[in-house]
Amino acid sequence: MTAKPVAICCGEPAGIGPEIAAKAWAALRREVPMVWLGDPRHLPEDTPWTEIADCTEATAGDALPVLRHEFPSPATPGTPTLENAQGVIDVIARAVELVTRGDAAALCTAPIHKKVLMDGAGFAYPGHTEYLEALTGAPRAVMMLASDALRVVPTTIHIALEEVPIALTPKLLRNTIEITAAALREQFHLPAPRIAVAGLNPHAGEGGAMGRQELDWIGDLIAEMAADGLEVSGPWPADTMFHAAARARYDAAICMYHDQALIPIKTLDFDRGVNVTLGLPIIRTSPDHGTAFDIAGRDIANPTSMIEAIRLAHKMAQGA
Hints:
By secondary structure, this protein is of the alpha/beta class. Helices cover 35% and strands 17% of the residues.
């Protein structure tokens, strides 16, 4: 087991982040070295934890290793406190620094609440991904949702459906495919990744009868990239891409918009889906859910996605 741990950001302390981190540590403490960054007052009361001075002390044991980060206030489950917002942001930056300088092997972030950060600390980013871009200097980060059943990458993400055909450009799609292919090689350790690209329109346009983007440029772009040596195919009708036989033919699916990508993976493997940020100079994963204020503090949060996110971050860092 590597001496370098996975760094876990506390996330929004009034949400389920501290609970699922503690549960994930209990499940993985003999398998994955990890360190939790945050205020230990925010952990569930029955969590065994020990304060450490640096990542070299984050070894497997009977207590969660904690790099203490003081917050102004305790946390009330389900009720976020604006004065704690800056602490959440600072923990992310501190964890990124640990991974960037090689003290930690990878980063796993618990959920944040973007409006709380904006209202409480003037957070200037739409979410984690854009903040991580800024912290690491990455030109562009891409979101992948991954599980044992499927890996999907949406080319456009949090925009209205009517805006997708405008935002979807040859440059954007090419860049998304290139970043995905590089990550599959370098972080998922697949020497010749197979990438399938979905069409934008129903039936991939059906020869222009249901939309022309596939004919006008998507098909040509894919053919050009395939001719350059990338194992990429499409555009495929999205409604036939996600059954078992189709999934066996590719390592990742590039989709054109948010729901086209996320509905299949959440249907196939809802609890085990992991958000992986591609295009960063570091490994970053997170559970595929939010802060769940409605169940925070009730000890009923399902830690499976957090467990899988930490396990995947460790696996990627190990080269497995």
